[in-house]
Amino acid sequence: MYRPAVLHEPPPEPFGPRLDALAAAVRARTDLEPRLGLVLGSGLGELADAVEDAVAIPFEDLPGWPTASAPGHAGRLLLGRLDSVPVVCLQGRLHLYEGHSPRLVVEPVLLMGRLGAGTVVLTNAAGAVNPAFVPGTIMVIRDHINLTGANPLIGPNDDELGTRFPDLVDAWARRLRELLRQAGREEGITIEEGVYAGLIGPSYETPAEVRMLLTLGADAVGMSTVLEAIAARWAGVDVCGVSLITNLGAGITGLPLSHEEVVAAGKDSAPRLAGVIRRFVRLAGAVNGA
Ligand code: HPA
Predict the structure, then answer these.
(1) Residue 125 among the catalytic residues
(2) What pTM was computed for the model?
(3) Domain boundaries, the chain
(4) Residue-wise pLDDT tens for the chain (290 aa)?
(5) CB neighbours of 130 closer than 8 A, spacing ≥ 6?
(6) Ligand 1 center to residue 49 CA distance, Å?
(7) Cα(245) to centroid of ligand 1, in Å?
(8) Cβ < 6 Å from ligand 1: which residues?
(9) How would you class 262 by CB atoms within 10 Å of its CB: exposed for 0-12, middle for 13-18, buried for 19 or more?
(10) Which CATH architecture best describes the domain 29-288?
C-alpha cells in the first residue's frame, strides 16, 4: 500500500498562504464571485465551452500549479457564467498518479471555496463495480471509500480553515444529491446513486481488486475525487458529485481495459451528463445559498 512520503518530510506549507497567493492571482484577472465550483473530469471538459464571458487562466499562470498532463485534461481555471449563474470551473484536474502531492491535488477545490463558491460539483469517469451499472450510466455519488492511502489533511492543521478531525457523515450532501436527481428527471435521464471508491492508479484494477471493491460496498471505481471531497468538507464547502460509468470494472467482461475505450465511452455519454450538470447549475443557482 502507498504510504505518503510526507510523513517523513518537513511539514508542508500551510494551505492559508497558498490560497492567498492563488486567490490574488485570480483576482488580478477577474472579480467574478462564483456561486458554484465545477470540477470537470475526463471527457467533460467541453462543458467549459458553455461558460459565457469566461476568463480562462492556464494552470501555469497560477503560482505553484503545474501544467496539466493527464490525457483529455486541458489544464485551466475558468470563471464565468453558466446559464447566468456565476461559476468557477476546473478544466482538467490534478491527480495523485501524476506524482502530485495530496495537498496540491486539493488546492483547486479549496481555491474555489476561497473565491466564494459554497458548493463544488465533482465529476469523473469511473469503472462499474456494481455489474448493473452498464457503460453510459450516470451515478450520483452517495458516499466514498478513500483507498488512495493518502489524505490531504496530513500535516499541521490550519485551524482557521477547518478542524483537525473533520466529520464526513453526510459529506455528500443529501439536499444536493436530491437536486441532481431532479436535474436528471427534468432532462429525462435516469440517474443511479452509489458509492465511489477512489484508488491511486494509474494502473487499472485487477479482477480480484474489483471483486474486493464489490464486497466493500463500492459501486464504482476511479482515480480522483475522494481527496477533493475530504478537503472541501474540511473547509466547509458543500460537496456533490457525479460519476460517468465508462466501462465495466476489470475482469467483469473478461476483456482487457484500455484508456482509449474509456475515453471513447466518455465522449459518447458526456453530452447527457453535461445536460444534467447544466440543469443542476440552474436549479442550484435559483436556490438561495447553494
Ligand atoms: N478504474 C479506475 N478508473 C477508471 C476506470 C476504471 O475501470 N474507468 C474510468 N476511470
Answers:
(1) yes
(2) 0.94
(3) 29-288
(4) 445 555 556 678 899 999 999 999 999 999 999 999 999 987 777 788 899 999 999 999 999 999 866 555 579 999 999 999 999 999 989 999 999 999 999 999 999 999 999 999 999 999 999 999 999 999 999 999 999 999 999 999 999 999 999 999 999 999 999 999 999 999 999 999 999 999 999 999 999 999 999 999 999 999 999 999 999 999 999 999 999 999 999 888 888 888 888 888 888 888 999 999 999 999 998 765 44
(5) 194, 214, 218, 219, 220
(6) 25
(7) 8
(8) 125-127, 204-205, 221-223, 246-247, 249, 257, 262
(9) buried
(10) 3-Layer(aba) Sandwich (3.40)
